[in-house]
Design goal:
Elements lengths: L1 H26 L9 E5 L1 H4 L7 E8 L4 H20 L3 E4 L2 H4 L3 E3 H8 L7 H8 L2 E4 L2 H15 L4 H20 L15 H14 L9 H9 L4 H24 L12 H7 L4 H14 L1
Parallel strand pairs: 2-3, 2-4
Antiparallel strand pairs: 1-2, 1-5
Helix pairs in contact: 1-3, 5-7, 8-9, 10-11, 11-12, 11-13, 12-13
Length: 287
Amino acid sequence: NAEFTEFSDRYMDTLFDICRQEVDAEYKKRIITEDLLAIFAAGGHAREQAYDDDYDIIVLLNSDDEEILSYCNKIVSKMNSDIIKRGTIPHHRFADYFGRFVILMREIEQLLSEDRPDIFIEKSQILGARLVVGSHRFENEFLERVVKPQIFDKKEDYIKQMIGEIHSRHTADKKQLLPASNIKESSGGLRDIEMMMLILKAKFNLKGPVNSKLFEDVARLQSNLENDLKELADALNFLKNLRDVYRLTAGATDIIVLEALRSPANIMGYKSGAELYRKFVAMRKKV
């Protein structure tokens, strides 16, 4: 994961520079975007996990200038074409809201200020984002203008909505509306752990990426939670490894089928698929 993340981040940074040079040649000038434009990774890549079939991106612009906005959209469009050529689908978070790839900082501020019961979805995307292209000055302003006032300062509401969503999915799981072997969505699966990580980040105003190191950061602040946090970290590593190996050997699905676990069991060091499946069930119960 670490090596793949480092490679992907460098690729995105280099690709941005190349595409900007191409757009500069079309404009016959350079439009200054330093400290104004930033590209954030979202989803699994923001958590520094190797992704498979898509790349979640949030592109933010801290300017209302129409020429700069058009210029930046052209750069990102060229980046999209190159990413697609390499067999990966760029998924632009918030593009459906605003009808373009590049989103204005003030638009995100307005969106997250909406008072509705499902606003935790958009807030989670922002809270989990990780800067890939852009300056630390932009990142700091993003934190002060967006993350702090809309999430950290309203953490009680955010955490309440997140807990409500977890309970709602657990209820659906008990009613068998979700497949019992879904490694991501069922009770104790990856989604539960990821949501708990976001809750912890909001609770303690943490600035780092949402990855396994977050458990260590929280343990230093709350030593009484150290054992529970270690169990969550162990569960996250096991479930993520199982999901990756299963997707490589059995199929690109989150539904774990016992009969398809022979190869994953061999790779992960288990005697049989049944033993690995029992570990999978036990880990989810522990979460």
